[in-house]
Amino acid sequence: MSPDARLSWKDVRDEIRDAILSGRYAPGDRLPRDADFAAMLNCARSTVQRAMQDLSDSGIVERRRKGGTRVRPDPVTRAMLEIPVIRREVEQKGGRYGYQLIRQAEAVPPAGICAACGLAAPAPMLRVEALHLSDGQPYILEDRWISLDTVPEIRAVDLTAQSANEWLVLNRPYSRCDLRLYAIPAETGAARLLGTAPGAALFVIERTTWIDTAPITTVRAIAAPGYQLVTQS
Amino acid sequence: MSPDARLSWKDVRDEIRDAILSGRYAPGDRLPRDADFAAMLNCARSTVQRAMQDLSDSGIVERRRKGGTRVRPDPVTRAMLEIPVIRREVEQKGGRYGYQLIRQAEAVPPAGICAACGLAAPAPMLRVEALHLSDGQPYILEDRWISLDTVPEIRAVDLTAQSANEWLVLNRPYSRCDLRLYAIPAETGAARLLGTAPGAALFVIERTTWIDTAPITTVRAIAAPGYQLVTQS
DNA sequence: TGACAGAATATGTAGCTACATAATACAAAC
DNA sequence: GTTTGTATTATGTAGCTACATATTCTGTCA
Q: Is there a contact between B213 and B147 (Cβ–Cβ < 8 Å)?
């Protein structure tokens, strides 16, 4: 690599970000045009464009056609969350994965579940309750509703052998996913299954997935005490 | 727009994604080369490249030089989390924002805080405890440590008038941010400040920010009961 | 003064080429 | 048979051009 190698778009991004971070451009300020940056940094406009796109994606900068690019006056923290399949998560942490089906029944979902799935009228669904274990210890308790309209084959799957989580992920890719994170006190039943005291603070990941506009499943995954979701960017 | 308008990279992405979702390519399968897709869809390879990049970012496919592109055998859920400045969050929900400084003192941080900041040796920091309110009700209780090495000016800021959250966001942009999400039972002090019972399940967002490798601040934001973090993608 | 049409402008996108880089496959040498 | 070097191949990146699109600015006319 020669000393004056060409700048990659990441170099350009870092250059511009540093200029912003150093205070050379204050929040709300308008930045030079892409073409000017290109001239300043001696690279192509397309390179600056890619860099700016990235800065825009990460919430540092705001871009508007004709309006130009300006430093976001109200920065937001944007971070990528990654939620793997539970078996993989356990194994990646070095644990031995285990799984228990607790209950499985077709039922008409309550209004809350219909709302999460964006259903106006209740449709028949399969409710599956299961426990995921790590090294024999309760790890995540899931309470899942699966749309029988969208996934009728689920009736034929043996959910004592394979978790619905895993089967769906492998057989029913989704096009959209909503997440909802919060904390709840353990109910008596959940507490018993998770091996904790009733009322304990539990972390919940609620996830609904769709294929196009058809709901596939909505899960409430209740994590055992001590569970943490970590991101970094 | 003519009927056979050129495909945008998003069209190409959707086309390929649909092919995967429909099962035409199964998890683990190798996809055609970018150039082949380009020929099939009658567009440029760069357009396919952008589409594939996006599919790769969202965790649907895996790309390797020479190895080609394959459908991820172990799909992960990736979602973008967006955490605004608290004042904005409250106002966006239509609430009236309020703020109270509870305590502020220079101190040597405990080991846990040093670790979060990646500090080997304890350095003096400013600890700030404050309560954010929505319509007069407790909303988020924050327990913050600010690095006096990185942000000495914070000593001169009147934190009764403006929250550290806001001042830092406007004056100290960061280059890196780690998030940690979990649930805890309310301690006596936190319970009183948040107007809830001791032991109540509370949602916690822990965030540490750096400028390059220098830690700026680490916060533990404890949300009042009912708080939910929502994402969609 | 106000409304509206059209010009100007900055970003967004697509296409092409050329070359870089990483991973694999294969063949030669020991 | 194993190792090592080289060729091949698929993706990654940069540069350029051309044109699309959204907004703002400006000038004209009522």
A: no
Return the CATH class of domain B86-223: alpha beta
> Cα dihedral angle (A194, A198, A201, A207), rounded to 10 degrees?
50
- C-alpha closest to that of A27 among B113, B114, B171: B171
User: Which ipTM did the prediction report?
Assistant: 0.83
The predicted pLDDT at position A148 comes to 95
- Say yes or no to pLDDT of A13 above 60: yes
**Domain ranges for chain B:** 9-71, 86-223
Which residues have C-beta within 8 Å of that of residue A161, sequence separation ≥ 6?
none
* A40-51: pLDDT as tens digits: 888 889 999 999
Asked if B35 CB < 7 A from strand D, the reply is yes
Give the type of residue at A118. G
> In this structure, are residues B125 and B113 in contact, taking their beta carbons and an 8 Å threshold?
yes
CB contact under 8 A, A229 and B182: yes
Arithmetic mean of pLDDT, B10-15: 87
- Cβ atoms of B167 and B127 closer than 8 Å: no
pLDDT (average), residues A76-91: 88
Contact A211 B185 (CB under 8 A): no
Look up tokens 């394979």; give the residue: A162
CA distances for B166 relative to A22, A95, B86, B132, B170, angstroms: 18, 41, 8, 11, 6
Strand-pairing partners, residue A185, are: A201
Are the beta carbons of A132 and A98 closer than 8 angstroms?
Answer: yes
Counting beta carbons within 10 angstroms of the beta carbon of residue A4, is it exposed (0 to 12), middle (13 to 18) or buried (19 or more)?
exposed
- Partners of B184 in the β-ladder: B202
Return the CATH number of the domain spanning residue range B9-71. 1.10.10.10
Closest CA to B27 of B66, B74, B63: B74
Tell me the C-alpha distance between A216 and A148, whole Å: 8
Q: Measured between CA atoms, how close is A231 to chain B, in angstroms?
A: 5
What is the residue type of B134?
S
The string of pLDDT tens digits covering residues B182-225 is: 999 999 999 999 999 999 999 999 999 998 889 999 999 999 99
Q: Residue B80: its chain A contacts at CB < 8 A?
A: 78-81
Q: Is the CB of B146 under 7 A from strand D?
A: no
